[in-house]
């Protein structure tokens, strides 16, 4: 017998309590508890469990062969770690209107053409609405089946019937299971629906793509439980007003999480950008005050982007430090080094730093470039070298430390027609044969002589 009981569940973090609370003790959110139903599993005897499970030596376990589908979209394949793994569950999140449904419809059509029936389930749009989008994207695949449905048990029955090679659920927050009284999108429903989908995916070896909405703060709506259950979590980002879209993986059981996919939203759908540097530098203001071009590695791919700094005088005791696309602590560290080593009075100035194009830069690739942009702005002096790319980590003593894959970044710069690169001295040896002027200082001070 399955018993049900009432619990109060925090809609932010999934914390459960037997009684209502004004504030979630776990994540501290106010008014987030709502009443939900929880099924209690019938208790299993230990002896039953012992019969089912069977420990075995690791050398006797066969490593499963990971089979992958080609999604027909190279940028998506890369982010997934080389294609869509059969039987895997992938969550894709992003702001409304960013292009999740568009990306998935394009993927669905490609897979349908190549591997047979694909089932696209939408709980948000009618079949006709999806057809309008498909027409816009020029999708005519006969094997692409559309179903507008929110009852997950009915969806499961259709999946058993038509045995698709790929299933898309758009979105998990609209799906519900009849036996549960809580509303679609609530923590219990989302959790239960995910359990169901996982079972169907693993039993039939069908890959699932599940769309999940994010809250205003950019968190996955509903609980984090979802992230733990699925194999891969992708996030689709970008400014809605600009066309560049970036797909990154936050978690991937079948690949790395450092790769990104770059797309551009056009009037006939998303197109992939295989050389993102060109796009990011399209409107770059070379040699403008406060601007520098930096090189970064996103996974295995070198990318050049523009970084901009604006330094303005302030009377505030605590001057402003505003960053977009870069870690605030990295900026603070660079500012501290510049104050101490170059005697630049940043404490009297507000500082704004922006990575153009919506990329988020991890690591230390941008250090030296950011320092140069900041110096350029505070001194109101532009870089005098023509077409210069800057890479390098800045250490606390003002030394320029080497970075990984510098040779690949220099190669990319040469390919894009750059004339000069400013790189760490220790990286210089690894570079040969590029038709580009190399400046390789070992300290911050030394760098400045050459470029201003
Ligand atoms: P959509 O995929 O519906 O976003 P999401 O599922 O993430 O909410 O895309 C919505 C936006 O994309 C919408 O504002 C219109 C725009 N768009 C294009 O610019 N070109 C296209 O070909 C399509 C299909 C949509
Ligand atoms: Mg959508």
TrEMBL record:
GO terms for cellular component: cytosol. Gene3D superfamilies: 3.30.230.10, P-loop containing nucleotide triphosphate hydrolases. Residues 350-452 are annotated as: Lon-protease-like. A motif (RadA KNRFG motif) lies at residues 251-255. SMART domains: AAA (SM00382). The keyword Nucleotide-binding applies. Keywords: ATP-binding, DNA damage, DNA repair, DNA-binding, Hydrolase, Metal-binding, Nucleotide-binding, Stress response, Zinc, Zinc-finger. GO terms for biological process: recombinational repair. CDD domains: RadA_SMS_N. One of its GO terms (molecular function) is ATP binding. ATP binds at residues 94-101. InterPro entries: AAA+_ATPase (IPR003593), DNA_repair_RadA (IPR004504), P-loop_NTPase (IPR027417), RecA_ATP-bd (IPR020588), Ribosomal_Su5_D2-typ_SF (IPR020568), Ribsml_uS5_D2-typ_fold_subgr (IPR014721), Rubredoxin_2 (IPR041166). Belongs to the RecA family. RadA subfamily. DNA-dependent ATPase involved in processing of recombination intermediates, plays a role in repairing DNA breaks. Stimulates the branch migration of RecA-mediated strand transfer reactions, allowing the 3' invading strand to extend heteroduplex DNA faster. Binds ssDNA in the presence of ADP but not other nucleotides, has ATPase activity that is stimulated by ssDNA and various branched DNA structures, but inhibited by SSB. Does not have RecA's homology-searching function. PANTHER family: DNA REPAIR PROTEIN RADA, DNA REPAIR PROTEIN RADA-LIKE PROTEIN. The middle region has homology to RecA with ATPase motifs including the RadA KNRFG motif, while the C-terminus is homologous to Lon protease. This is DNA repair protein RadA. It comes from Clostridium oryzae.
């Amino acid at each position: 017998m399955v018993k049900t009981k009432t619990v109060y569940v925090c809609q932010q973090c999934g914390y459960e309590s037997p009684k209502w609370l004004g504030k979630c003790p776990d994540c501290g959110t106010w008014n987030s508890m709502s009443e939900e139903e929880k099924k209690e599993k019938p208790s299993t005897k230990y002896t039953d469990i012992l019969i089912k499970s069977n420990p075995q030596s690791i050398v006797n376990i066969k490593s499963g062969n990971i089979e992958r589908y080609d999604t027909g979209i190279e940028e998506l394949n890369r982010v997934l770690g080389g294609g869509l793994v059969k039987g895997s569950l992938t969550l894709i999140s992003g702001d409304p209107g960013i292009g999740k449904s568009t990306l998935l419809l394009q993927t669905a059509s490609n897979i349908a053409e190549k591997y047979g029936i694909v089932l696209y389930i939408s709980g948000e749009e009618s079949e006709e609405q999806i057809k309008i989008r498909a027409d816009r994207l020029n999708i005519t695949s006969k094997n692409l089946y559309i179903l507008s449905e929110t009852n997950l048990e009915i969806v499961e029955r259709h999946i058993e019937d038509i045995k698709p090679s790929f299933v898309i659920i758009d979105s998990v927050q609209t799906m519900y299971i009849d036996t549960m009284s809580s509303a679609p999108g609530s923590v219990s429903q989302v959790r239960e629906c995910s359990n169901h989908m996982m079972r169907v995916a693993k039993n039939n070896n069908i890959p699932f793509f599940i769309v999940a909405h994010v809250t205003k703060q950019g968190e996955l709506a509903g609980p984090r439980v979802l992230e733990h259950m699925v194999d891969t979590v992708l996030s689709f980002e970008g400014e809605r007003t600009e066309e560049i879209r970036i797909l990154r993986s936050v978690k991937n059981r079948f690949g790395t999480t450092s790769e990104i996919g770059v797309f551009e939203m056009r009037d006939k759908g998303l197109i992939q950008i295989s050389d993102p540097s060109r796009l990011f530098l399209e409107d770059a203001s070379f040699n403008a005050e406060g601007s520098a071009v930096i090189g970064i590695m996103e996974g295995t791919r070198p990318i050049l982007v523009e970084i901009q700094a604006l330094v303005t005088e302030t009377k505030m005791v605590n001057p402003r430090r505003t960053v977009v696309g870069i870690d605030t602590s990295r900026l603070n560290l660079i500012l501290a080094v510049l104050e101490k080593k170059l005697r630049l009075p940043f404490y009297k100035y507000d500082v704004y730093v922006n990575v153009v194009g919506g990329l988020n830069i991890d690591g230390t690739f941008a250090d030296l470039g950011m320092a140069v942009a900041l110096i350029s702005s505070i001194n109101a002096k532009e870089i005098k070298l023509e077409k210069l790319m800057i890479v390098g980590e800045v250490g606390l003593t003002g030394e320029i430390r080497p970075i990984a894959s510098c040779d690949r970044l220099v190669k990319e710069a040469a390919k894009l027609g750059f004339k000069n690169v400013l790189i760490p001295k220790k990286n210089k040896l690894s570079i040969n044969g590029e038709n580009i002027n190399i400046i390789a200082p070992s300290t911050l001070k030394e760098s400045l002589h050459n470029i201003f």
